[in-house]
């Protein structure tokens, strides 16, 4: 059983002090003393269950009650309650900064301090002796927050127009803070030092038990380096997507088999982040079938399980990513109409949200491009420009440059698909047709038609992660003696999904009936 700590024992004067007299970093309410002392004890005892309860529940409860719009007490104020333990103080500061980013707007100094704290924390994990077991949720949040703060810093630094002289001087002085190479090096170092790639390889041969134990070490060792290394592969995928380097991002994720359950599915945030970035990268590389398959699986999973996460601090983020992935799925299916790849439940949700827009996206006129633009802008990651700014006058904002470039490349691809809509329509109608007849129907000459057909072949094929050519075509063809022979893929009927939806509806009706009070 989880211990129930009483967090209502903060002195009454605290709230007056926080709101009326301003924030005092050295004031530590009794409930915070109790929290850090218990957390410290549980970490020393490797009591993962209690650590998880305190991290997931107690920390948020205290934040809501005492620190809604102020930071937590400073690390110096709590250090003597935890024997001035260096590693615990680094972990406390990691949580301190995460709370600050979530509730307030960090200053430039605080952004730099947070970078220094991550450097110190990761250095200890990489080069020190770490004998802790921490919950996967916390270890995932560390990697997730590290990448988020890097992204946030790049966006902040790119808005140069209204920077003060003091901010510019600090940016010049601390030019290594949140440097893209530093971020990538830390993530890569965690992957390599943890030997996680070799561990996952050995697991396939039955020599390791990483996934079966969710990454935890039940022989008295530590899970910290191994699991941080594992989640760092997902962090690398995310960073490379933010930089627009999709091939490298997918290469970093390759050791994780996303067709199977794994440690990445043990934390809902990690699961969604992995598939969102995997799907987006494949969309940008024209591997639409891979993107559709994975979006379908994760959207179905969220549909079935989201009610269990309603009280989770990640709930809003789950709903937001859910909506973004439906928008990306709408784009994929408009460019590669393979509806047979998605479950009926996901399809009906998609039609409800984007049915009308998807019909208009098939037209390839200005209105269609505007919809592609709108959906991409809503659903894409917040791209970054990682290079240092120019400090020459006049100072300009460049925070939108990377996004505009990716949007331009995406819309250029959509424009190239315009020719294919007409070809696809005719190929669906005929099983065989001569080149001359199809050229007449499309009102072009034969050489132009051959070029269009070659373009269709090119655009409906992509190179996968193993450098093999794969087809995305819902309608394919081959040419033999000036005759076009059409090959259409067959749709597989799924009955199980229909029954599943009816069961969900029936359960809803039963729940409604249970709530009715009979006289």
TrEMBL record:
Q: Which PROSITE patterns match?
A: PCI
Keywords in alphabetical order, please. Answer: Cytoplasm, Initiation factor, Protein biosynthesis
Cellular localization per UniProt: Cytoplasm
**GO MF term (any one):** translation initiation factor activity
Q: Where is the signal peptide?
A: none
Report the record's Gene Ontology biological process terms: formation of cytoplasmic translation initiation complex
Q: Which GO terms describe its cellular component?
A: eukaryotic 43S preinitiation complex; eukaryotic 48S preinitiation complex; eukaryotic translation initiation factor 3 complex
Tell me the ranges covered by the PCI domain, including all copies.
Answer: 294-493
Show the InterPro entries listed in the entry: eIF3l (IPR019382), PCI_dom (IPR000717)
Its quaternary organisation is: Component of the eukaryotic translation initiation factor 3 (eIF-3) complex.
Family, per entry: Belongs to the eIF-3 subunit L family.
Q: Which HAMAP family match?
A: eIF3l
Q: What does this protein do?
A: Component of the eukaryotic translation initiation factor 3 (eIF-3) complex, which is involved in protein synthesis of a specialized repertoire of mRNAs and, together with other initiation factors, stimulates binding of mRNA and methionyl-tRNAi to the 40S ribosome. The eIF-3 complex specifically targets and initiates translation of a subset of mRNAs involved in cell proliferation.
Name of the featured protein: Eukaryotic translation initiation factor 3 subunit L
| Organism, as annotated | Erythroxylum novogranatense
